[in-house]
C-alpha cells in the first residue's frame, strides 16, 4: 500500500507521515518545493513536485497510490483563495485520485463545520465543500473533524504559551465560557495513520482530546504549567473585532475577524464519541499536552 500525503510539510503533515513511516508504509508526498521537505526525504518519503491547484501534477502524484491523505488547508486569505486552494483543490485531487484508481481518501476537515455553520466564514465554507467533494466521489472516504490541534512545533499552542509567558495579563476573548477540546498532534496523526488501512470507510469522526475545558479553565492550566501568576482580563468581542479589522492583514496578526466569528459560534468540542469508541486510543490529557509543550 502506497499513501500519498498532501500538505506533508505543514504542521500536521510531518506527524502523519512519521506515523505512517513508523509502520513502514511507503509514503509519497506532494510538495511545492522539495528543498523544504528534506526531513520527509530523510524518512524515505518519495517527493513529487506539485500543487493541488495544478491538475497535471496531481495526476502524476496519484499514479500508483492506494490511499490519499489530504491535509492541505489555509487559515487566512481572500474568499477566492479559500475557493481556489481548498475547495477547487480538493475537487482537483478527487478527480485525479479517481482517474488513477486510488481506493481511499482520508480528509482533514474541522470541528464545527456543518450545515448550520458552513456559510459563517470562508474557512468553514471551504471545509464543507471539501467534505462534499470527498463524500460525493467514488472513493472510500474517511473524514476527521479535529478540535484545536496542540503540539510543540507549530499550530496555535506556541503562540498561547508565548502570550502566557510574556504578556502582563492574559486576554480572554468574551466571557471565556466557551469550551474547547484540544487534541495532541501525535494522537491526531495516529488517527490518520490508522484510517488508511482500518475498515472505517464512509465515516466522519469528530476528534478531540480527553479534556473539554472552558477558555477560562484553559488559561488557568496554562498559567499552572508555566508556573506563573499573571491575571487574566476578558476582552469584549466587539473590541477584538475592531482590533482585528485594523491588524488582520499584517504578517503575524494574532487573530482575524473570521476566527472571532468561529469562536463566537460556541463550544468547539466533540459531540459524537465514535472516534474514541472505534479506534480505542489512549489520548494525551490536556495537562500532559501542556507539560510536553513547555518541557
Structure notes:
By secondary structure, the protein is of the alpha/beta class. It has a domain at 3-148 and 183-208 and 269-282: NAD(P)-binding Rossmann-like Domain (Rossmann fold, 3-Layer(aba) Sandwich), CATH 3.40.50.720. Helix content is 43%, strand content 17%. The protein is built from 12 helices and 13 strands. It has helices at 13-22, 38-42, 55-62, 79-100, 122-135, 157-166, 185-195, 215-226, 237-247, 257-264, 274-279, 286-294; strands spanning 3-6, 27-31, 46-49, 67-70, 104-108, 140-146, 149-150, 170-173, 179-180, 183-184, 203-207, 213-214, 232-235. The strands form 4 sheets. A 7-stranded parallel beta sheet has the order 3-2-1-4-5-6-11, with helices on both faces. It has a two-stranded parallel sheet with strand order 7-10. It has a two-stranded parallel ribbon with strand order 8-13. Helix 3 runs parallel beside helix 4 (79-100). The longest helix is centred in the first third of the chain and has 22 residues, at 79-100. The model has no long low-confidence stretch (mean pLDDT 94).
Topology, pairings included?
Elements: E1 3-6, H1 13-22, E2 27-31, H2 38-42, E3 46-49, H3 55-62, E4 67-70, H4 79-100, E5 104-108, H5 122-135, E6 140-146, E7 149-150, H6 157-166, E8 170-173, E9 179-180, E10 183-184, H7 185-195, E11 203-207, E12 213-214, H8 215-226, E13 232-235, H9 237-247, H10 257-264, H11 274-279, H12 286-294
Parallel strand pairs: 1-2, 1-4, 2-3, 4-5, 5-6, 6-11, 7-10, 8-13
Antiparallel strand pairs: 9-12
Amino acid at each position: 500500500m502506497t499513501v500519498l500525503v498532501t500538505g506533508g510539510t505543514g504542521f500536521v503533515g510531518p506527524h502523519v507521515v512519521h506515523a505512517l513511516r513508523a509502520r513502514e508504509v511507503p509514503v509519497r508526498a506532494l510538495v511545492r518545493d522539495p528543498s523544504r521537505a528534506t526531513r520527509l526525504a530523510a524518512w524515505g518519503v518519495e517527493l513529487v513536485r506539485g500543487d493541488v491547484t495544478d491538475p497535471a501534477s496531481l495526476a502524476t502524484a496519484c499514479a500508483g497510490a492506494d490511499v490519499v491523505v489530504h491535509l492541505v488547508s489555509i487559515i487566512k486569505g481572500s474568499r477566492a483563495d479559500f475557493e481556489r486552494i481548498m475547495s477547487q483543490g480538493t475537487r482537483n485531487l478527487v478527480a485525479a485520485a479517481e482517474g488513477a484508481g486510488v481506493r481511499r481518501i482520508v480528509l482533514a476537515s474541522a470541528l464545527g463545520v456543518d450545515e448550520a455553520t458552513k456559510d459563517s466564514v470562508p474557512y468553514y465554507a471551504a471545509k464543507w465543500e471539501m467534505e462534499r467533494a470527498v463524500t460525493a466521489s467514488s472513493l472510500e472516504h474517511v473524514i476527521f473533524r479535529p478540535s484545536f490541534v496542540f503540539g510543540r512545533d507549530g499550530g496555535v499552542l506556541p503562540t498561547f504559551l508565548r502570550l502566557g509567558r510574556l504578556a502582563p495579563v492574559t486576554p480572554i476573548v468574551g466571557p471565556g465560557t466557551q469550551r474547547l477540546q484540544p487534541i495532541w498532534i501525535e494522537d491526531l496523526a495516529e488517527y490518520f495513520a490508522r484510517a488508511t488501512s482500518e475498515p472505517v470507510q464512509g465515516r466522519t469522526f469528530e476528534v478531540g482530546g480527553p479534556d473539554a475545558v472552558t477558555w477560562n479553565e484553559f488559561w488557568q492550566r496554562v498559567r499552572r504549567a508555566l508556573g506563573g501568576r499573571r491575571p487574566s482580563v476578558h476582552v469584549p468581542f466587539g473590541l477584538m473585532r475592531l482590533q482585528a479589522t485594523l491588524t488582520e492583514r499584517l504578517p503575524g496578526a494574532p487573530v482575524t475577524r473570521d476566527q472571532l466569528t468561529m469562536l463566537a459560534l460556541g463550544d468547539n468540542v466533540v459531540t459524537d464519541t465514535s472516534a474514541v469508541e472505534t479506534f480505542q486510543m489512549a489520548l494525551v490529557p490536556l495537562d500532559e499536552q501542556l507539560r510536553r509543550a513547555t518541557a
